[in-house]
Amino acid sequence: HWAPLCRHRAGAWGAMNLGVNHILYDTGQIDTRPRCRALEGKVLCVAQGADILVNSAAKGDQLHMLKGHSGSITCLVSGGSEGALFSGSVDGTVKKWDLLLSSATATLEGHTGMVTSLAVSEREGAVFSGSADSTMRKWDLATGSLLATLQGHSMMVTCLAVAEDEDALFSGSADCTIVKWCLSSGAQLQTLLGHSLPVVHMQAEVESGLLLSDEWGAACLVKTWNMSTGQLVKSEARPQPKVTYIRV
């Protein structure tokens, strides 16, 4: 089900200048800390500053705390059933964690700006990272080695979505565009135009073949795209976020 960013992740960016003369502040009470389930749903990992709390999904009690980043964590993604977890941070790195050992096993370096988003393709054996440096990087899921660098945006990459059935990776950006990439080759396939504000969240609906994208704005505009053709299906406004926009 579609859960737009404006409802559950509005404060994840803190007070970030997205390059459109706005600084955004979360004024709501929603817990916007990055989180994900791992170990087949048995644990819930929650970012807290530069650390990661690993909690029991059943009881909610804390099992471990993972430390290693030098800056706040912006995104988390599970790396499969073997206990792998990946975290991206404002320190510009991606870390791979072994949840069974409660330790970091690799630090993925190469971005020159904060890491803003992560996505995993188990079919490709890869984890993708998006960054404020406007690039994406494809890393080997097992070793953490760099496989490719994808360049196609003029401003920071804000979100990623993988659609393995389409052999596609989608990247949203503060430049108000969505770019479709070939998941396997990394070739740039198409640019989806239609947003007038930064794209901040995307979700690939595999069964329907649709991509939903969310942009900043008082109307909380959500667009629906055909993933195969890139055609815009519809645009609709969702409930307004509890966010204050201050123009500078």
Describe what you observe in this structure:
The chain is mainly beta and 248 residues long. The protein is 2% helix and 51% strand. The protein has one helix and 22 strands.
What's the arrangement of strands in the largest beta sheet? 2-3-4-5
Taken in chain order, the helices and strands follow as HEEEEEEEEEEEEEEEEEEEEEE
Task: Tell me the major beta sheet.
Answer: 4 strands, antiparallel
Q: Roughly what fraction of the amino acids lie in strands?
A: over 45%
Structural class computed from helices and strand pairing: mainly beta
Number of strands: 22
User: What's the N-to-C terminus distance?
Assistant: 35 Å
Provide mean pLDDT, rounded: 86
Number of helices: 1
Uncertain runs? 1-28, 243-248
Q: Roughly what percent helix?
A: under 10%
Q: What gyration radius follows from the Cα positions, in whole Å? A: 17 Å
Instruction: Label the overall shape.
Output: globular
Question: How are the SSEs ordered, and which strands pair?
Answer:
Layout: H1 5-8, E1 22-26, E2 35-38, E3 43-48, E4 51-56, E5 62-66, E6 73-78, E7 84-89, E8 94-98, E9 103-108, E10 115-121, E11 126-131, E12 135-140, E13 146-151, E14 157-163, E15 168-173, E16 178-182, E17 188-192, E18 199-205, E19 210-215, E20 221-226, E21 232-237, E22 243-247
Antiparallel strand pairs: 1-22, 2-3, 3-4, 4-5, 6-7, 7-8, 8-9, 10-11, 11-12, 12-13, 14-15, 15-16, 16-17, 18-19, 19-20, 20-21
Short structural description:
This protein has one helix and 22 strands. The protein has one helix at residues 5-8, and strands at 22-26, 35-38, 43-48, 51-56, 62-66, 73-78, 84-89, 94-98, 103-108, 115-121, 126-131, 135-140, 146-151, 157-163, 168-173, 178-182, 188-192, 199-205, 210-215, 221-226, 232-237, 243-247. The longest helix has 4 residues, at 5-8.
